[in-house]
Amino acid sequence: MLRAAIAVLVALMLSMGIASRPSKAADAPVSWLPGETREAKDARMTWWTKAKFGMFVHWGLYSIPADGEWHMRNKKVPLAEYSRLAQEFNPTKFDADAWMTLAREAGMSYLVVTTKHHDGFALFGSKASAYNIVDATPFKRDVVKELSEAAPRHGITFCTYYSFLADWGHPGGQAGCPPWDPASQGGDKRAYISHMATAQVRELLSNYGRIGLMWFDSDGSRDIKPEESAAVVEVLKTHPQLIVNPRLQGVKGDFSTIEAHMPLIRPKVDYWELCTTVNGSWGYTGSPARPLDKLLPYLITAWGMGGNVLLNVGPNREGIIPEDSAERLRQIGAWLKVNGESIYGSKAGPFVWLPWGTATQKDGTLYLQVFKWPEDGALCVPLANKPLKAWLLADPAKSALPAEQDKDRIWIRLPKTSPDAVASVIALQVEGEPQSTFASLCLNKPVTATSAQDSAGGITDDDDYSRWRCAEGTASFTVELGAPATFTTLRICPIVNKVTSGILEVRHEGKWTTLRKDIALQRDENILTFPPVTGDAVRFSFTGEAKPPEISNLELYPSL
Ligand code: GLC
Q1: pLDDT tens, 148-201?
Q2: What is residue 56's predicted lDDT score, i.e. its pLDDT?
Q3: Where are the alpha helices (DSSP H) in 111-239?
Q4: Of the candidates 446, 440, 445, 388, which has an alpha carbon nearest to the alpha carbon of residue 412?
Q5: Dihedrals φ, ψ of 51, to 5°?
Q6: Whose CA is nearest to atom 2 of ligand 1?
Q7: Is residue 423 located within the same domain as residue 533?
Q8: Is 282 in the pocket of ligand 1 (CB under 6 A)?
Q9: What are the DSSP calls for 254-298, one per residue?
Q10: Burial class (CB in 10 A: 0-12, 13-18, 19+), 451
Q11: What DSSP element (H or E) covers 138?
Q12: Which of 113, 119, 259 has most ligand 1 atoms within 8 Å of its beta carbon, as the pocket-test mutant?
């Protein structure tokens, strides 16, 4: 009675504008731009969504010690000593057009360069700080200017990375850890934010023509006040159609940044970007480029989940992108020349996971990127649709491949040898919206954990972001499947900290059996395969891990 009366009163107040509705997700801001509509944001994101592939460049004084961009902090080098590297920085072989040419050859259409990394040294002439390439080096050339001018000549959108809060080279810049050089790292954070960082962002957005994207970084530093981030937004607003990443506190980014791990399931966001490296390090170290048969499927997997890929190269102290990195990029470009129709402008495929590759879709066509060519020449696609036509993208004649439906599977007959040694693409058109029932046996199944039970559901839900925030180095969790099921593949991703001592057990008819011991998991997609195993629960445990691993997902799949 009382409740009904209150409801009537609230409805009356709402209709009179006296009470306000609790903010629904639909009312939440869509971006950092105050009041922007979803349509306006989608329009602003168009070039980036179509581009799919960009070049990330980490370059600065740290290319001299060749020890990665964290050299100063890792080796605790005092600023007075580190900054002397500027006098040695004379990269006379730097050629902005050569970088752009390589980006184009790789099939990339945007380039994000570290205009200032955490070491605080800027690659552009700056009035806010003389610690920059023009004022502090014998080179004296404004690299950001040369790149910004070269980019449009090559059809590349020029973009800037800027380490905003983290700065080990200016008083008041944050270190994200106890400072090792209080003499230079103390100082007024508020003054640093307004007179140095915000001022340099203003310089970048005012002096270099069109900038497509501002890619902020923070090194975990978070001390920024609402009025300070609001002042940054005012500066960002001056640059028409700018896209902003999500790494500056208080500035709602336009997309999610996923770094150093492959999500197991498609991130539940409209826009996301995987940033990764060609050779395992951001700044130059001399380490060799990853083999094409590892790197290319990795990138395609991100595209298969609807992401963009920002692939990093680290030029050396002379300004040259190492030849093996360049060669790897050209190989990716050669693949995109043949198969780019399946990538550019595409969206995520209709599958969570496929044992032989991944898939994208565009304009009513599915594209199946096959990494493991079936030995018997029969590709099984878990779709309950009638196939209309299938062909190889590498075949300009588009000759039809035989394709048949068998209940919720489509079988495509392939030639004996794959057109590409690493990833071959089959275009497939089917009747109606693609319908797939191939899913993890663990999906949304109950989990009990010996630690952090409140977050354990994150292991089996269909959200890559939610995770089990395990707090102990010795722990286990059990997933109840509800009924006996047979599986052949396990996928698992520790998103924070690795696992070195994993044990996987299965319960069948009330009895637990160990399937694998000493399982080492990297912070990325890990796949374990077995001959068919039947059970109604699985348990994963580890012992004595130095840092508690946080697991984003565990999935079990039957054979396809
Ligand atoms: C990591 C590195 C940082 C690099 C960034 C790029 O956070 O620590 O140096 O700039 O990745 O996303």
Answers
A1: 999 999 999 999 999 999 999 999 999 988 889 988 888 999 999 999 999 999
A2: 98
A3: 133-136, 143-153, 182-185, 189-191, 198-207, 226-237
A4: 388
A5: -60, -45
A6: 282
A7: no
A8: yes
A9: SSEEEESS--SS--SSS-EEEEEESSS-SS---PPPPPHHHHHHH
A10: middle
A11: none
A12: 259
**How many domains is the chain partitioned into structurally?**
3
Residue finishing a domain among 287, 311, 342? 342
> What pLDDT was estimated at residue 25?
61
With residue 23 as reference, give the H or E element that holds it. Answer: none
What token pair was written down for 399? 């000759």
Q: Do 386 and 503 lie in a common domain?
A: no
Cβ pair 230, 32 in contact under 8 A: no
Q: What is the pLDDT of residues 79-100, one digit of tens each?
A: 999 999 999 999 999 999 999 9
**Domain-ending residue, one of 295, 314, 342:** 342
Atom of ligand 1 nearest to the CA of 69: 9
- Span from the CA of 374 to the centroid of ligand 1 (angstroms): 38
Say how far apart CA 274 and CA 410 lie, in whole Å: 31
More confident residue, 352 or 14: 352
| Each residue's pLDDT tens digit, 495-536 | 889 999 999 999 999 999 999 999 999 988 999 999 999 999
Q: Is residue 1 part of a domain?
A: no
Answer yes or no: do 53 and 140 share one domain.
yes
pLDDT surpasses 80 at 416? yes
Taking the centre of ligand 1 as the mean of its atom positions, its distance from the CA of residue 163, in whole angstroms, is: 10
The whole domain housing 280 covers: 38-342
**Ligand 1 close to Cβ of residue 273 (< 6 A):** no
Please answer whether residues 428 and 387 qualify as being in contact, where contact means their C-beta atoms are separated by less than 8 angstroms: yes
Q: Is 217 in the pocket of ligand 1 (CB under 6 A)?
A: yes
Length of the chain: 560
